[in-house]
Automatic annotation (TrEMBL):
Belongs to the LysR transcriptional regulatory family. GO terms for molecular function: DNA binding; DNA-binding transcription factor activity. This is IciA. PROSITE patterns: HTH_LYSR (PS50931). It comes from Desulfamplus magnetovallimortis. It comes from the Bacteria.
Length: 297
């Protein structure tokens, strides 16, 4: 039988991104961390971690991480049910989400859950490909993604849609799109994009002009949902912003929808482990219920 302390050391190194940080979290020396992982590798007969910076789990290591995380969640629920004491331990609850979800509605929805459960939330922000990988590798209990495809051993549920529009400040529109928006004017005006994985603007232009974003379009990159809209409102660029974030500024005239007849609706799915867990069920119900009040059906 594998000693949980060995698996705990492996998970800590991967989660914290290094042996030094893992040793501080577990309150043991780096040497002890290394020894426990070495013993775990000897017991399993496989290399479990690539000693790089940061350390990366091998395929075998990923399976152990996932197993440990699932067992720890079930163990927490067992002791939580057995104990009536106020000294019950908190469970770390890692969730993978994208930046727009975090910036607009996620915290308001999960705060009531956190007020009633002894968990600490661990939010991992990344694009949908990476949050899916985190779920598959067992690094998170669940993730919110626009991908419908369900990870093996997990379940998914549509929780709503986020609607995105192409917006700009009035002064910016007058300067760059005074007459009409065309592919030629798009090539001249500076566009704001979240990061190089962001395809929303290309999706909208393909929908309107049946053509992709021109290669020579001047582009600003700003990977912050909050500052993203501020940058556009300051008249520095135009870009794609969700309705839930831009609604008030559109109503006040601070922003203008520069392609009012076109938008991009992005479906959001909640993916989580398919295990019998009352905590997971409670969180999932709270998330789905809360999302239905803020997202489009």
């Amino acid at each position: 039988m594998i000693d949980f302390k060995f698996m705990e050391a492996l998970v800590a190194v991967i989660t914290e991104g290094g042996f030094e940080k893992a040793s501080k979290v577990l309150h043991i020396t780096q040497s002890a961390i290394s020894q426990r992982i070495k013993q775990l590798e000897e017991m399993t007969g496989q290399i479990l971690i690539v000693r790089s910076a940061p350390p990366v789990p091998t395929e075998a290591g990923k399976r152990i991480v996932k197993y440990f995380m699932q067992v720890r969640q079930l163990e927490h629920e067992l002791f939580d049910n057995l104990s009536q004491s106020s000294d019950r331990q908190f469970l770390n609850f890692p969730i993978g989400i994208n930046a727009d979800t975090l910036a607009t509605w996620f915290l308001d929805v999960v705060i009531p859950f956190l007020e009633n459960e002894r968990v600490t939330i661990d939010i991992r922000v990344d694009d949908q490909e990476q949050t899916h990988r985190m779920l598959k590798d067992g690094e998170v209990f669940g993730c919110i993604s626009s991908k419908k495809v369900t990870v093996q051993g997990c379940r998914s549920q549509l929780i709503g849609y986020m609607n995105y529009r192409m917006v700009a400040a009035p002064g910016f529109k007058k300067r760059w799109f005074d007459k009409e928006i065309s592919l030629e004017s798009v090539k001249r005006a500076p566009l704001l994009v979240f990061n190089r994985k962001d395809e929303l603007q290309s999706t909208l232009l393909q929908k309107v002009f049946n053509a992709p974003l021109p290669d020579d379009t001047p582009i600003h990159y700003l990977p912050s949902s909050e500052k993203f809209m501020e940058f556009i409102a300051a008249g520095m660029a135009y870009g794609m912003v969700p309705d839930i974030q831009s609604k008030k500024l559109l109503e006040k005239g601070v922003l203008i929808d520069i392609l009012p007849l076109a938008n991009v609706k992005v479906p959001l799915y909640w993916h989580c482990w398919n295990i019998k867990s009352s905590l997971m069920e409670t969180f999932s119900k709270a998330l789905v219920s809360g999302a239905s009040k803020v997202l489009e059906p």
